[in-house]
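Researcher: Structure for this, please.
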Amino acid sequence: MSDPVSDGFIYGLVRHFSSQHAYRRWGDVKPFFNMLRDKKSALVTRLPVGCWPWDRIVCGIVSNTDDRLPAILHSMGLSLGSSRFYRHGGRQSDETHDDCDISFMTLSYDVDVEKPDPQIFVAAKDYFDSTWLPEKRRLLGDAAVPPTDEWEFLHVGDDMQKDGACAREAGWNSILIDRLGRFPGPFPSQGNPIRVPLGADPQNFSTATATADDLLSASQDIPPEKQSIEVIRNLSDLRRWTPSA
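Model: Predicted structure, token format:
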């Protein structure tokens, strides 16, 4: 019969997996949020923002995980707002500021569904519309906060089905981030995305031999941008991305 596991060991294990020590932060993450801070500051001061296509930026997280995530992200140097869909409390929002890296979170732990179920994205958008926006209107005034239908909802993730196809099914735009180079390219130029069929298997895909007709050969009733997904190499490529519709 094995010896019982001590409470100290269990506590240490939970603490380890609730911090940066058990995870890797990709090198493009912190520079991306630094870039967002610069863009937000420029928007507030009315300075030129180059090719950036949006006049307000809100970054949230939709993730298949539990309530350890805020502590993990904080330990990685990201600033968090406490606006979140809570498991038992329903919804909670406080006077978060636009200079937070992460403004709100929707976690599978709290909403009882996980990707690739599109309802997790439906819950995130509903939370944004019914809780986050009203709080911002209360703080800033109605005229300062556009209605929901004027926002672009974009999800960036690294899994074709759980992120790309799932977000698209929920009515969001989506981009696949391919840091590991699973899709071989060639990328047209540095920082510009390639477009691949939605659901494409990187193991059996080559853009070197595929033509535009091959990539977009699905039903003619579906616009090409709905049949395919853009792929970027890292988060910095988002500064060149604009909505296709």
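Researcher: Any notable elements?
Model: Confidence is low (pLDDT under 50) at residues 207-222. The beta strands are 60-63, 80-86, 90-92, 102-107, 154-157, 173-177, 194-197, 228-232.
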